[in-house]
């Protein structure tokens, strides 16, 4: 029997992308992947309720609870190891991934970004800032990108993108909603393809 890829989703807020991945799994659309852990960098966020409703184990690992970045990173890495996580999906996770996790999970950390990278990415480009920048630049198209995570914010290899039109009269909110709808389709699809590829290659740990 081929192994099922164990997925952790890291969140900091609403968790709608995490929920989209879990729902795809429940609907049988992610045969090679199983979301077994949700880690939130913040307590009390909606993502934790969504994880609980879906019956997925979740935990809060908050930076302020640790003396420094490396202790915070070590706790996160330990949680991933304890659950034998194969791939890590960032979904609205607002903390930078540390060097130890990047090394351990090299090529197996995915992120979703609400714009067409390499445009509108990098430090400070998150949430409404992204959509504001797209609108101010007068772009005709926007969209979302799933990419591999490396040391630089939003710069790792692109795995897939979906596009949406920017419409006259769009606000950051209306554009964000149109992009988010696509995110919920794209991320589960990429997780599926990525997991199946890992299984086929026999490269999973
Ligand atoms: C999404 O727009 C995602 O692209 C970005 O943060 C947002 C997270 O939304 N990285 P949610 O928490 O998945 O609802």
Describe this structure in words.
The chain is α/β, with parallel strands linked by helices and 205 residues long. The chain has a domain at 5-112 and 145-158 and 186-201: 3-Layer(aba) Sandwich (Rossmann fold). It contains 6 helices and 7 strands. It has helices at residues 16-26, 46-54, 69-82, 99-104, 128-136, 172-201; strands spanning 5-11, 33-40, 58-60, 87-90, 109-113, 141-148, 158-165. It has a 7-stranded mixed β-sheet with strand order 3-2-1-4-5-6-7, with helices on one face. Helix 5 (128-136) packs across helix 6 (172-201). 5-O-phosphono-beta-D-ribofuranosylamine binds at residues 11, 13-17, 91-92, 112-114, 144, 180, 183.
Summed up, what is this model?
This protein is of the alpha/beta class and 205 residues long. Helix content is 39%, strand content 21%.
Termini distance? 16 Å
User: Number of helix segments?
Assistant: 6
What small molecules does the structure contain?
Answer: 5-O-phosphono-beta-D-ribofuranosylamine
Largest sheet: 7 strands, mixed
CATH topology of the domain at 5-112 and 145-158 and 186-201: Rossmann fold
Coarse structural class: alpha/beta
Q: Which strand order does the major sheet show?
A: 3-2-1-4-5-6-7
Low-confidence region ranges: none
Order of helices and strands: EHEHEHEHEHEEH
Query: How many whole angstroms does the radius of gyration measure?
Result: 16 Å
CATH class group of the domain at 5-112 and 145-158 and 186-201: Alpha Beta
- The CATH architecture assignment of the domain at 5-112 and 145-158 and 186-201 turns out to be 3-Layer(aba) Sandwich
The percent range for helix content is 25-40%
What's the CATH H-level superfamily name of the domain at 5-112 and 145-158 and 186-201? Formyl transferase, N-terminal domain
Mean pLDDT: 95
């Amino acid at each position: 029997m081929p192994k099922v890829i164990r997925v952790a989703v890291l969140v900091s807020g609403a968790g709608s992308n995490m929920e989209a991945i879990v729902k795809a799994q429940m609907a049988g659309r992610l045969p090679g992947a199983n979301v077994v852990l949700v880690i939130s960098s913040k307590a009390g966020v909606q993502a934790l309720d969504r994880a609980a409703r879906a019956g997925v184990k979740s935990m809060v690992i908050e930076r302020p609870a640790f003396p420094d970045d490396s202790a915070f990173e070590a706790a996160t890495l330990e949680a991933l190891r304890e659950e034998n996580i194969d791939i890590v999906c960032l979904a609205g996770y607002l903390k930078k991934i540390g060097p130890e996790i990047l090394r351990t999970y090299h090529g197996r950390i995915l992120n979703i970004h609400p714009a067409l990278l390499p445009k509108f990415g990098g430090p400070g480009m998150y949430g409404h800032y992204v959509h504001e920048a797209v609108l101010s630049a007068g772009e005709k198209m926007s969209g979302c990108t799933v990419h591999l995570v490396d040391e630089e914010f939003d710069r790792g290899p692109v795995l897939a993108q979906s596009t949406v039109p920017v419409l006259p009269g769009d606000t950051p909110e209306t554009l964000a909603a149109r992009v988010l709808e696509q995110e919920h389709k794209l991320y589960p699809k990429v997780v599926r393809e990525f997991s199946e590829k890992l299984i086929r290659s026999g490269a999973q740990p």
